[in-house]
Structure to design on (1035 residues):
């Protein structure tokens, strides 16, 4: 933060620490109200003009708390031992002194003021002590005379004060300030070259302009510390200035670079150096309007590389440093080559819906106040939305019956549901009951021919069981429970599923048999998704899920329950007795028969 | 004097080697080819001196040239316990630390995240080593992160040296095993490259954040809103088998039978589902990586269009991305009142004053008055009058009128109110 003071017979304070006054317009308005000093050869006797008034006011200002310091101070008085406060500052004083002696006196006066302030601040509630001050004096003089003040490198006047003096010809003050700023704030300069701009008078053609910007030095670290020859080629010292600028070429944006996340290793806010120049304005407006631009640097070895991205976010402009080095992720495998990569029927569209339902948005700052953090809340929300969420299309039936069960799935995952929504859910259940009683087959929305050959009764049975799982896992409130109870009351599970108990028993026994031998378990699970072309469609091989663990890593209830065929094969009978003659050869017909035999027993 | 010192740099599984003395020499470029390193090791010779600073300098240059300043690296300095004598010694390097300038900076801390391990092949009670140990420790401390100084346990013999290196290898290359969780859906995952703890230095303290084993999805955001925030690292998220293969030896990848891989490919994985949906929707998932630490997961494709799930690790803290606001306060619109819901990008409370609007007379006048440069106004008035006399015959008659008007007003108002606005003269030509 920066404060401005002018000093004549008194100190004029141009702005305060308030964030509202930390901008160019405010300071410029203050300056204009100040007016012009009277001509030197005025008829009136010279008044007591002195820079000391301004310096005193500056010291006082540095002792005032900024918003952040005030916050810390409060925390400290409340006894928070973790909060620390160091009040370091710098004053840049532009003045004119007669000679080295008067400059020396000025520094001594300042040093005394500083110590006096700290003494007074000890017992003050309002003022902070100043832990250290860096005083930079710019002694300015007209171009046609010689300076009687010599340059003075940084020197410690006391433990509190370091001073330095630069004699600068009046027209060069701004250049000097630029180099001081770079040094004081660890900034660096980039010149964006080759920006095509249209002239107002000559809108049909465009000329190329350069715009210089300042930003944190760190934004250059990657390119300057990399290849020495490359970095040498882009560093130049601008005419009349003391500092280096890195020249990067404007790269006309094609397409929208916002659609992908760039490999950005650092980002810093920027400011144009010449805030009043036309090209600066042009570039700034281009960026503020939401467009971004890549900057490239040439390479000695030939070609060029995109090294930075300029973009604005929320009215602030940033330079993003992009990774120009070799990538450690050379030749990565594609996700389709790893675990789960060969599965082709993930419920991508449904998960897309879940993504849209769980979009995060900011809360308007005026409402933030003392709101508790919302991350646990949104995680709990995701938890609720995924209570029952099969990963693949073939491991679910109800989510393929959208035209029958919507809007139940989206309602039931809500934290609270209204009475009206509860009625909607119940209606879904009633409709399904009605359909079943009319012997209407269920048409699957996105499975296509997979449902062919599935018996209607079987389909309903699976649907009811899966619906029960969904509702049972989503009993978040009384209304949720009423939906669940509605299902239990309307549909008689036990009497309808006479064979369910036996199958469950079989599964339990199988579990015991295979316990402690993950290989066997895995084999059976995998086989469930690698059926031969002649095996029954996956949906018909789904066993009722009632007693199964819902939170199965392999994707909901439907991948764990096995058909009798699976149970049979997973017991690996071939080891205990010879296989059927038909299976030993490559006879598909024989396999087909076996499947059908066991399938019919299952029914 | 006989010193044998050499360097390994181990970068994931890519290493290089530098031999050093008064100068350094790159003996082996970054490679995954172990035989090349072995061959080069056998060719290693003795040099004139021990110059650890020059070695650090060289290693730093090589890393920056090849990997930039963002990739975490590990260094192994192998030494006989000597730190050198004379102007190139470590003692000398340390004693001149405070007199360095931009042209000869001390190479530590590195410009990139790095761990330094100093391995001393010397007996425990070696008098040289006793003196060197604190100096080595100082190097390790300066590098930051948690490096180490290693000395063989017990007598100096082949077996103690081998076990020392084995221990080092285990410490350095433990791969990350964690869980990616989204509500009740989850996947066991590994991250490549393995994440390293992030150390944040502030005015008053130094905080180290270690990535949690639980990477938990909070919700989702469009890629366009996220922009390209600064990341401290990026990692591929690779789903691992959940079928009891947790305790594999380091070289597991090579041993995996093809059949196993093929079967794993057919077991549904939440990672693959998430990847597919994020790609289709052009969205990212905001995840928590630890206490008040966030990251983004999204679909990423390399130059060969091989698509993968990528994790971008943000700097710790909920304020890592200014235009997203406080990440801890992002919420679902369902949880909020309609009037509370904001939108991206989140704007700072004050508008930045980047630049002033276009050049025009009133702005120039205002600037001149603000800066007390009133002569400019007189000069300008004079220029306008000159321009007036030199107008070509073809010029619009309004030109002369307006120029004269402007010159007049500039002179008249020069000591007056800054808020005064010069308006064009209304003439027959422009009053339509």
């Amino acid at each position: 933060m920066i404060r401005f003071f002018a000093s004549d017979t008194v100190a004029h304070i141009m702005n305060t620490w308030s964030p509202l006054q930390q901008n160019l317009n405010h300071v410029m308005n203050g300056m204009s109200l100040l007016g012009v000093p009277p001509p030197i050869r005025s008829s009136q006797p010279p008044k007591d003009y002195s820079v000391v008034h301004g310096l005193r006011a500056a010291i006082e200002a540095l002792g005032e708390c900024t918003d952040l310091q005030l916050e810390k101070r409060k925390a400290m008085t409340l006894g928070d031992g973790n909060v620390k406060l160091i009040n370091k500052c710098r004053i840049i004083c532009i003045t004119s002194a007669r000679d080295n002696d008067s400059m020396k006196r000025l520094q001594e006066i300042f040093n005394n003021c500083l110590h006096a302030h700290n003494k007074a601040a000890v017992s003050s509630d309002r003022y902070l002590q100043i832990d250290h001050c860096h005083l930079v004096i710019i002694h300015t003089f007209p171009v046609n005379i010689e300076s009687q003040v010599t340059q003075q490198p940084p020197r410690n006047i006391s433990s509190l004060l370091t001073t330095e003096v630069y004699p600068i010809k009046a027209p060069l003050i701004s250049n000097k300030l630029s180099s001081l700023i770079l040094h004081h704030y660890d900034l660096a300069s980039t010149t964006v070259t080759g920006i095509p701009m249209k002239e107002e008078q000559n809108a049909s053609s465009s000329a190329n302009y350069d715009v210089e910007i300042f930003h944190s030095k760190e934004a250059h670290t990657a390119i300057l510390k990399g290849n020495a020859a490359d970095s040498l080629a882009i560093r130049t010292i601008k005419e009349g200035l003391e500092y280096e600028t890195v020249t990067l070429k404007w790269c006309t944006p094609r397409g929208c670079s916002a659609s992908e996340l760039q490999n950005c290793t650092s980002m810093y806010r920027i400011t144009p150096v010449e805030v009043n120049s036309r090209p600066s304005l042009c570039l700034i407006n281009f960026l503020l309007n939401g467009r971004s631009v890549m900057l490239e640097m040439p390479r000695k070895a030939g070609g060029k590389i995109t090294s930075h991205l300029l973009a604005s976010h929320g009215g602030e402009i940033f330079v993003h440093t992009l990774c120009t080095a070799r990538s450690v992720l050379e030749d990565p495998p594609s996700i389709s080559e790893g675990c789960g990569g060969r599965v082709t029927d993930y419920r991508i569209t449904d998960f897309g819906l879940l993504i849209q339902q769980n979009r995060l948005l900011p809360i308007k700052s005026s409402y933030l106040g003392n709101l508790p953090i919302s991350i646990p809340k949104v995680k709990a929300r995701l938890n609720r939305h995924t209570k029952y969420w099969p990963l693949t299309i073939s491991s679910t039936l109800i989510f393929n019956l959208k035209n029958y069960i919507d809007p139940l799935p989206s309602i039931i995952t809500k934290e609270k549901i209204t009475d009206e929504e509860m009625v909607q859910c119940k209606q879904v259940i009633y409709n399904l009951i009605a359909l079943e009683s009319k012997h209407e087959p269920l048409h699957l929305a996105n499975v296509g021919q997979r449902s062919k050959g599935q018996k209607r009764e079987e389909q309903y049975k699976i649907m009811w069981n899966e619906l029960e799982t969904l509702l049972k896992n989503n009993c978040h409130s009384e209304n949720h429970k009423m939906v669940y109870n509605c299902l239990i009351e309307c549909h008689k599970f036990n009497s309808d599923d006479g064979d369910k108990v036996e199958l469950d028993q079989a599964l339990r026994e199988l579990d015991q048999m295979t316990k402690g031998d993950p290989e066997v378990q895995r084999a059976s699970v995998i086989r469930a998704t690698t059926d031969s072309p002649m095996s029954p469609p996956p949906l018909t091989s789904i066993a009722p899920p009632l007693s199964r663990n819902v939170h199965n890593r392999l994707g909901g209830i439907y991948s764990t329950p096995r058909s009798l065929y699976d149970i049979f094969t997973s017991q690996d009978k071939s080891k205990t007795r010879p296989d059927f003659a038909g299976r030993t050869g490559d006879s598909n017909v024989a396999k087909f028969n076996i499947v059908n035999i066991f399938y019919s027993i299952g029914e | 004097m006989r010193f044998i010192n050499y360097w390994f740099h181990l970068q994931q599984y890519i290493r290089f080697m530098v031999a050093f003395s008064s100068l350094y020499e790159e003996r082996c470029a970054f490679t995954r080819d172990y035989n090349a390193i072995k061959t080069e090791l056998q060719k290693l010779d003795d040099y004139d001196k021990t110059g650890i600073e020059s070695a650090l300098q060289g290693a730093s240059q090589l890393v920056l040239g090849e990997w930039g300043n963002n990739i975490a690296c590990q260094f192994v300095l192998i030494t006989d316990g000597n730190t050198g004598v004379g102007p190139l010694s470590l003692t000398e390097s340390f004693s001149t630390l405070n007199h360095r300038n931009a042209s000869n900076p001390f190479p530590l801390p590195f410009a990139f995240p790095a761990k330094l391990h100093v391995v001393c092949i010397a007996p425990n009670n070696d008098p040289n080593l006793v003196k060197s140990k604190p100096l080595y420790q100082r190097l390790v401390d300066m590098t930051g992160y948690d490096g180490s100084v290693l000395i063989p346990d017990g007598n100096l013999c082949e077996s103690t040296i081998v076990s020392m290196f084995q221990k080092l290898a285990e410490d350095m290359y433990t791969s990350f095993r964690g869980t990616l969780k989204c509500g009740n859906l989850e996947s066991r995952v590994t991250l490549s490259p393995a994440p390293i703890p992030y150390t944040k230095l502030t005015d008053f303290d130094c905080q180290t954040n270690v990535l949690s084993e639980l990477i938990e999805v909070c919700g989702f955001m469009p890629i366009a809103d996220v922009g390209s925030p600064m990341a401290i690292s990026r990692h591929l998220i690779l789903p691992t088998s959940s079928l009891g293969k947790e305790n594999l030896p380091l070289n597991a990848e090579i041993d995996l039978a093809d059949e196993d891989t093929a079967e794993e490919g057919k077991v549904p994985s939440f990672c693959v589902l998430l990847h597919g949906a994020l790609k289709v929707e052009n969205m990212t998932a905001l995840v928590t990586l630890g206490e008040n630490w966030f990251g983004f997961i999204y679909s990423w494709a390399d130059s060969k269009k091989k698509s993968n799930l990528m994790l971008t690790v943000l700097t710790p803290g909920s304020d890592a991305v200014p235009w997203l606001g406080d990440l801890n306060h992002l919420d679902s619109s369902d949880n909020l009142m309609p009037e509370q819901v904001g939108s991206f990008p989140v704007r700072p409370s004050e508008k930045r004053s980047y630049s002033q609007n276009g050049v025009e007379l009133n702005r120039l006048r205002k600037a001149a008055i603000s800066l007390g440069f009133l002569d400019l106004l007189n000069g300008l008035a004079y220029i306008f009058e000159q321009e007036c006399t030199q107008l070509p015959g073809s010029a619009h008659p309004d030109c002369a009128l307006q120029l004269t008007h402007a010159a007049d007003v500039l002179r008249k108002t020069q000591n007056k109110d800054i808020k005064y606005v010069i308006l064009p003269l209304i003439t027959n030509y422009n009053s339509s």
Summary: Chain A touches chain B through 121 residues (CB under 8 Å).
